[in-house]
UniProtKB/TrEMBL annotation:
Interacts with the SSU processome. The chain holds residues 52 to 284 of 498 of the full protein. Residues 25-53 form the DEAD-box RNA helicase Q domain. Belongs to the DEAD box helicase family. DDX47/RRP3 subfamily. This is ATP-dependent rRNA helicase RRP3. Residues 56-227 form the Helicase ATP-binding domain. It is found in: Nucleus. ATP-dependent rRNA helicase required for pre-ribosomal RNA processing. Involved in the maturation of the 35S-pre-rRNA and to its cleavage to mature 18S rRNA. It comes from Penicillium bovifimosum. A motif (Q motif) lies at residues 25-53.
Length: 233
């Protein structure tokens, strides 16, 4: 597959960015502002991981991203940090939506947003199944910046929670995209995606991506940059 980083890509397909482990860059050198670099430091992150180094600059340029890297490689911050950068420029309720396949993952992601965004007072809420709808609806009423959700419960709120809408959404993330796209989430995802604005950025992150092209198209990425970090080096 073609390997070119930042090449101008006339064809609609995505270019692939492989990890020629370039000279390690700092978070600041990736283009993040000081308050976010500080938050990374507080988390104990000394240097960006490869998936972060490769995808953050592309995301900051406004690209859609397909990010592939093994479990434990730091994919959460790879999508959270660019979203937090954009949020700082134009703070707004319901700025970002992250969909995850399990409750546990959704909680972890929500916590990561709050930790990485602590220096800029980011508010995030988690919508997962198996919990009472009412407290979640109340949390939505407080208009968080970031919603992290499992698809079924998100759809439930979109259909039943008065006043809740994602029509101003700027960023959509599908985390563990393979599982989201391959499980029986398909029809639910389609209903959710139908009510999201087309004018948005979309990030798709996963350890593997075996999903069919058709299910990938569900996410309606726009000329995505594909960042693939192989672990067998
Ligand atoms: P993935 O989603 O790829 O499985 P996570 O985003 O869950 O990985 O991150 C795995 C662990 O690595 C988490 O504990 C996270 O806090 C930590 N981590 C993320 N980025 C860095 C970094 N740049 N330096 C050190 N640790 C990091
Ligand atoms: Mg992850």
């Amino acid at each position: 597959q073609a390997v070119s980083k930042g090449a101008s890509d006339e064809d609609a397909s995505s270019e692939t960015v492989t990890s020629a482990p370039s000279a390690a860059k700092t978070f600041k050198e990736l283009g993040l502002i000081d308050s976010l670099c500080e938050a990374c430091e507080k988390m104990g992150y000394k240097l960006p991981t490869p998936i972060q180094s490769e995808s953050i600059p592309l995301a900051l340029q406004g690209r859609d991203i397909i990010g592939l890297a093994e479990t434990g490689s730091g994919k959460t911050a790879a999508f959270a940090l660019p979203i937090l950068m954009a949020l700082m420029e134009r703070p707004q309720p319901f700025f970002g939506l992250v969909m995850a396949p399990t409750r546990e993952l959704a909680y972890q992601i929500s916590q990561a947003f709050e930790s990485l965004g602590s220096t800029i007072n980011v508010r995030s809420t988690c919508l997962v199944g198996g919990m009472d709808m009412v407290p979640q609806a109340i949390a939505l009423g407080k208009k968080p910046h970031i919603v992290v959700a499992t698809p079924g419960r998100l759809l439930d709120h979109l259909e039943n929670t008065k006043g809740f809408s994602l029509r101003n959404l700027k960023y959509l993330v599908m985390d563990e995209a393979d599982r989201l796209l391959d499980m029986d989430f398909g029809p639910i995802l389609d209903k959710i995606l139908k009510v999201l604005p087309r004018e948005r950025r979309t990030f798709l992150f996963s350890a593997t991506l075996s999903s069919k092209v058709e299910s990938l198209q569900r996410a309606s990425l726009s000329n995505p940059a594909r960042v693939s970090i192989s672990s067998n080096k």
